[in-house]
Amino acid sequence: MPDLRTQLIASACAMQPAGLNRGTSGNLSVRHGDGFYITPTGMAYTSLVEDDIPLMALDGSHLGRRKPSSEWRFHRDLYASRPQVGAVLHAHSPFAVSLACLRRDIPPFHYMIARFGGDTIRCAKYAIFGSPELSNAAITAMRDRQCCLLANHGMLVAGRDLDEALALAIELEELCEQYWRACQLGDPVLLDAGEMAAVREKFAGYGQQ
Length: 209
Ligand SMILES: [Zn+2]
What we know:
The chain is about 35% helix and about 15% strand. It contains 6 helices and 8 strands. The chain has an 8-stranded mixed beta sheet, sandwiched between helices. Strand 7 and strand 8 form a beta hairpin. It is globular. The structure holds zinc ion. Zinc ion (ZN) binds next to loops.
């Protein structure tokens, strides 16, 4: 099995071709032991080698030659509060950012919204990047959900592993684009609570052989 840091770098490099980020915005982490590996601050993912990846403890301290992403707090707070979370992805992807700038929750315009755990995707209230206030707002917006938007900023996704976090982020960006497109034509017709509950029930048994 390859080093977890190698997998983290590969997943981070996959974010750009997937349309999730450009340049050095965004960050990705994976749980390891009592802490987590996280992408370092201000470095292009394609230039990363294993020793560039800091290991953070849940107290916010880190080991390694590089400084962790300045946005490490919501990664740490998700690992600390949710034992089932194995990887966290944050991106400034164009359609998620566009909707986040409206500071509105994404309503149940498509059944795949239920994939993230509820009937909406919430937008966390604004706070400056890297702050405890932003992390608290994100944790609140992600209650019973695997993702949220961050007002005037981007998206945040929590998965059980790197593959799931990346897949969910791609799915979320796709939903943001589809909602944006539908809104160009009028007011999308929304699914009601009963229809969304039926979708969640079907998802619960989906993929089981
Ligand atoms: Zn950010």
